[in-house]
């Protein structure tokens, strides 16, 4: 690494995060679980195959249109378990609170976590509370770690992606990122943009019914859809073509992105899944997904192309192609 | 709660932490797992009984005599799993890093975690890295969450504690707390005090051989031995008598406590277990424990007495009794 100091970009979820994780952790911690390259680890516990995933939430502001750090911290971990092919079951919560934080806010966050857990069908089973001096944290940080049982009928791995496979996104992109940005910068749009923060356990259940026809899926949070596809391209050794006109996008988000010079494909989502499926099953899967309110705007946005290994290409409406790189550093820090 | 702001004492692990957890979380999150009153949750995952436990580490300084935040974060979670009666298996790591933190320090911490995991027989299977702006955290905070398989032969619950049972501590008390305090305040003693930071998975294995004769055990970290015994007294509805002269104590720790006005029974330990066992098995268990280097100073320090339900009494060398309360707020913030 060129720099010897941690920069905000190292937390972006993009290229810099990947480099840091590879150079500092993958090397020293080397084990087959870390090498699975999933949103979590798939573990053998006795006779059971379970998924385990962890995430710390440092979002600012703590309350934003469509959600708050409590809800986000539960759904974020639930969705990572879903992406591993698991039925989410149990979630732990580790809270780091800054001295002087309001007890009422804490109560609101605790209640929001509880409601989110109920909604997503998981239980908050164990917790830990630490307090640090004023000025040594920023309100509250929440770690959630989740475990779930891997569904026997599924096997989600990037190396199962095949040329010709279709890429589905389960709804409109960029809403969480834009909602948080707008709240933070005091921007307002003609129609308010709210975070898409929602649990995807039912999406996971639905997709499991398609068994091996679903190759792999991933939760496009930090770094957005473009970054997740780049990860999958690297890990599968295949490439992706994404058709710009097929990407589900709210007109308000589109307008705001044009105005602010943002690319919705790099904005964080907190209630969407990018799913790679067998070509022949794609249409049926999308139609099924559209029956669920949380994935009603599902669409096939592209396909896997062997001729561009490791690359993600955006096909514009005029038929031109440009490379969609992984998010470089940070479009927006502390988005989750 | 009288105060409506979070105070440092709410993170002490003592009475204020208990009040906060009860008033904010237990009420809203109510479920049978949280009510188990253990250092973690015991869960059914398919046909398997597993333990899950979480802890965030916010210790300052990050490197201290006898350890560092990396090692501590792995052993802390391993020891909580042991206290649940589990064989520790897998650990996740969620890192929150302050912008500007040195990459070299991060590498040292990552290597220390890796070494600790190897030592304790667990694997670091999944992780998450977040970065917050300079001044919004304090170097690095680490959450670890662990899972392990519950040993079939054990059943550790406070409500299995019976009058007459013996209380064992697996070694000298107060070393971690004093080492961190000394490092922080620039104190030096005739013989340096180092943290007792060590994994107790072999202690767990040994105790499992005694099956149901071991009633319950707990890891006396924040709030020390006195606080843990108070928790057990409340949860079991019994009382404890602790004999002052039987408490294993390093003379340097004893001298420093006298000088500084500290009570070693409230100082944090990071490699000790408080174990309640059947009276008749106590001597054999202690002798066995003394065969392991990590528990060579094990001793019976007291017994369970029904006549003082909910109380912990210290019997002084002169035969007088005084009440050992739970730690009120904070003797020393950010000790783990």
TrEMBL record, chains A, B:
GO terms for biological process: protein maturation. Belongs to the HypE family. Residues 39-150 form the PurM-like N-terminal domain. It comes from the Bacteria. InterPro entries: HypE, PurM-like_C_dom, PurM-like_C_sf, PurM-like_N, PurM-like_N_sf. SUPFAM superfamilies: PurM C-terminal domain-like, PurM N-terminal domain-like. This is Hydrogenase expression/formation protein HypE. Signal peptide: none annotated. Residues 162-307 form the PurM-like C-terminal domain.
